[in-house]
Backbone:
């Protein structure tokens, strides 16, 4: 992926020295081909895994766009082809102003700067594939794809934000617009920022529109196949390409469609685990045989986990607790070692075609609101409360009465105990415990009140599950491995198509991905269509009990973490005991989150 960095305003060092420092922080371990532009009062730099990052400059304007942008305007599309995308961006802005953003498609991050007018425009794509962060510091706007580049600017002082730590422990990542640092923020999907003479304006230039089009099932199924072929084709560029293949619906679909474009067996990559319930290699083998793809396998070991943790801790510019980053890295590394420079990933299918189990769970809870109020208050709830055998009914009622989207977080780890039992008192005094739910509500309430429940949940997941989590995971691990990645299912046209499918077809009764499964019969193997969702999970909790070096590593990190006085020592002891004697996988997830936080804090303090 490419990386943008720059600043506008005051600077205590020479312009070229500052941009060189920021580019060095951005390139870190993978990106190359840095290009910089400096003026009397600002600078922009870009670097990329790809061979030709572009930067456009003139007397009045400089512009840069990285990623894989597409253009609705034929003139701009031709200019991007003949010159470069940054040139097209500058010309589009001259002609259309901010409306140029609505003409862009694909994944991108961009910057337009008019130094003489003290003006900057920043924006990222509709899905949030490409990140941008920014801060105002000492009269300057400093921005970059990676927060590490912002921190390298001489005017910026890094200060850890306790709220960022709390949000991380709640979500296992830090959702936009916040970061781990005070006063540093991330752009959200489909958002732009204007900086005009020291004043900031932010707004969404695009939002997914959800429709309920009642076309025939046969017509929609045919359109799905056409959209899949177009989306995969758009992601191919002639470079050596492989696919992630877990054997699930999405990775199997992408591999199968890609195979249809190739005369030779395509190369697919899968990670396995020697742990019951985690190994998906048999499903990947089935899909590879079904489509005639060549499957390449790698079994991750507990020692691999130990070896990768330090690398991952440095790679992410914020604490990141999604343990499937480990298999994603080893999968990407295997592909890179075999000469691939691009991987196609299946991320997004569950979040556009309704494949996550929480969608059906919330649909069940939502049924309760259709029962007449008088019947609930006069009969059902009093009976459920007074009769112990109806304990499950009482629990159902209690959860059904929690409003959305808070109800989605009923099982969140931080809701299982009182916060004062989990956290140090002084730490709690520095944070707003409602902040995570506020972020969820803000996204949920951006949808129209008439939007069906399942589509409201999809919209939440577009941001929190995809942009803030899964895409961040895969992007960064592919960068670490030195390979690019594209997401066919998150192409703009594919997402718009999925948003048109009626909610009662996305999930029929309580069948997840109902429309998709029926539409793909005859293309995907029957065993794939009936497979339950797994993904690239990591048996960390199990291996922690079985592999002494990993257990020792965890205990050493948690011992260090105790000294930070974020969590109560007694609570850390409690979850360690529960992990060893109870549900190793369930408690192992939160222990992993704590270990990765400690590792990140330790590595950050050494920078």
Residues:
């Amino acid at each position: 992926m490419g990386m943008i960095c720059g600043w506008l305003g005051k600077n205590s060092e020479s312009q070229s020295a500052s941009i060189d420092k920021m580019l060095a922080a951005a390139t870190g371990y993978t990106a190359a081909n840095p290009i910089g532009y400096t003026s009397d009062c600002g600078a922009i730099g870009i670097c990329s895994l790809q061979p030709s990052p572009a930067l456009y400059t003139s007397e009045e304007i400089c512009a840069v766009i990285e990623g894989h942008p597409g253009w609705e305007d034929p003139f701009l599309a031709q200019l991007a082809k003949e010159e470069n995308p940054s040139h097209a961006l500058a010309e589009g802005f001259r002609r259309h102003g901010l409306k140029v953003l609505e003409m862009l498609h694909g994944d991108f991050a961009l910057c337009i700067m008019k130094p003489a007018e003290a003006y900057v425009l920043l924006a990222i794509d509709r899905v949030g594939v490409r990140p941008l962060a920014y801060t105002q510091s000492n009269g300057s706007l400093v921005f970059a794809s990676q927060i590490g580049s912002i921190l390298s600017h001489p005017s910026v002082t890094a200060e850890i934000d306790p709220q960022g730590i709390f949000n991380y422990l709640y979500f296992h990542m830090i959702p936009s617009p916040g970061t781990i640092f005070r006063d540093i923020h991330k752009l959200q999907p489909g958002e732009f920022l204007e900086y005009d003479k020291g004043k900031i304006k932010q707004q969404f230039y695009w939002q997914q529109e959800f429709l309920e089009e009642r076309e025939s099932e046969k017509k929609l199924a045919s359109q799905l196949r056409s959209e899949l072929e177009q989306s995969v084709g758009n992601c191919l560029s002639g470079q050596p390409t492989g696919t992630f293949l877990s054997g699930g619906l999405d990775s199997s679909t992408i591999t199968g469609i890609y195979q249809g474009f190739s005369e030779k067996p395509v190369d697919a990559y899968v990670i396995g685990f020697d742990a019951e319930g985690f190994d998906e290699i048999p499903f990947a083998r089935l899909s590879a045989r079904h489509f005639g793809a060549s499957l390449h396998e790698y079994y991750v070991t507990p020692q691999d986990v130990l070896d990768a943790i330090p690398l991952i801790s440095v790679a992410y510019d914020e604490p990141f607790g999604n343990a499937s980053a480990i298999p994603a890295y080893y999968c990407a590394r295997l592909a890179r070692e075999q000469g691939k420079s691009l991987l196609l990933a299946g991320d997004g299918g569950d979040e556009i075609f309704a494949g996550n189990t929480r969608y059906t769970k919330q649909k069940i809870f939502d049924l309760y609101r259709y029962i007449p109020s008088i019947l609930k208050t006069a009969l059902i709830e009093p009976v459920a409360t007074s009769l112990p055998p109806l304990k499950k009914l009482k629990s159902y009622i209690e959860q059904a009465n929690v409003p959305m989207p808070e109800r989605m977080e009923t099982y969140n780890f931080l809701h299982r105990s009182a916060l004062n039992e989990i956290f140090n008192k002084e730490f709690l005094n520095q944070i707003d415990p409602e902040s995570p739910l506020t972020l969820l509500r803000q996204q949920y309430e951006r949808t129209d009140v008439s939007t069906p429940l399942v589509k409201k949940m999809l919209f939440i997941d577009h941001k929190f599950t995809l942009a803030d989590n899964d895409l961040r995971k895969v992007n960064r691990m592919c960068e670490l491995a030195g390979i690019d990645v594209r997401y066919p299912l998150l192409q703009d046209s594919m997402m718009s198509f999925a948003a048109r499918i009626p909610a009662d077809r996305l999930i029929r009764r309580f069948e997840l991905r109902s429309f998709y499964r029926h539409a793909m019969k005859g293309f995907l193997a029957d065993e794939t269509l009936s497979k339950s969702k797994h993904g690239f999970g990591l048996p960390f909790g199990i291996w922690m009990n079985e592999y002494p070096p990993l257990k020792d590593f965890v205990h050493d990190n948690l011992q260090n973490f105790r000294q930070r006085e974020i969590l109560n020592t007694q609570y850390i002891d409690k979850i360690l005991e529960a992990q060893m004697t109870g549900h190793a996988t369930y408690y192992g997830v939160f222990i992993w989150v704590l270990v990765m936080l400690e590792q990140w804090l330790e590595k950050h303090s050494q920078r």
Summary: The two ends are 23 Å apart (CA to CA).
